[in-house]
Write a structure and sequence with these properties.
Layout lengths: L5 E6 L10 H10 L4 E7 L3 H4 L7 E5 L8 H14 L3 E4 L4 H10 L3 E6 L6 H5 L2 E4 L7 H9 L21 H7 L5 E4 L11 H13 L4 E4 L4 H13 L12 H9 L3 E5 L2 H8 L4 E5 L3 H6 L8 E3 L20 H4 L3 H11 L9
Helix pairs in contact: 1-6, 7-10, 8-9, 8-14
Length: about 350
Amino acid sequence: MVAAKKILAIQFKYLGDAVFVTPALRALREHLPDCELHVLVAEEAAPVLENLPWLTKVWPMPRTRGKARIRESWPIIRALRRERFDFSVDFVGNDRGAILSFLCGASERLGALESGRWWGRKICYTRTVPTEKLPDSWVRRHVELLSACQIPPPKSVHLEANADPALSGEAARLLPDAKVICHLTTSQPKKEWPVFRWAEFYRLAAAAGYALAFSSGTNPRERALLDELKAMEPEIVTLPPTPNLRLFLAILKRAKLVVAGDTGPLHFAAALGVPVIGLFTIGDSLLHTAPIYQKEHVIVGGSCICDTRFLDSSICQEAHPCMESIQPYQVLQRLDRILGVAGKIGR
């Protein structure tokens, strides 16, 4: 592994998880500063990584969940094979990542291996690490996977991303003044703070002198929640739906702080160097993502009928009491602690 000159890192998971691989990529770069470091990710996640100057190339792969898009994917696979990688590492170890590891043809192929899954994953790699031996946190899991090849952790474990500077003007048009961005929604209702709590927080924060802007995802369910908040508080400032992730990253970069649940915008903002306040459930999302944040940047919901034993059951598919138990005054107190007077209007 020490002699590897060309490396392919593979990460296929949710959009928000793309940034979690950056500490492990940084570890590879620090350990092998002269290597070519390529990354293969889902097409929609590529903007998160493509402006990191220390990556050689980001390869976007078309993806539809549950469906193989062979016609679009095969030319990319052929191009990757022509690169003749010395080493590949599949940080997630799902079926798609395992197959792509094999097809890309690196001479050494490392992957995380979860027991009880498709047997073919094992033959796709030349070296595996059982997921049972890896940490719960996705960030630390990715870093620990590399220790199988004697690659030490990076000097600093933190998320990294850069916004495209060419989009700064458009971002300034959409968000003329730096504000606290409040992102209401996630892809999973169980991780969302209730809309009425956001309304209460808006009233408290506005009275305290903070300028807020509210955003949501682009799908109809998430936009409907933003409309619901707007009906409660007609004076709020809302950001338009922004399906262009490159532009959305440039908007986030302008924020004074981002408040959100366990979702991509929270993690993207942290990677961009923007202060964050993350609102977390007591279960799986806290275990997998919160350990990378400082304590002051995390607020965790109280006791609930669900815990880590029930995360895959229907009990946790809708909004539930542990998120509702987070009080608006707690978020305002944390906002004051992080931003203070400098975060208020006219400062």
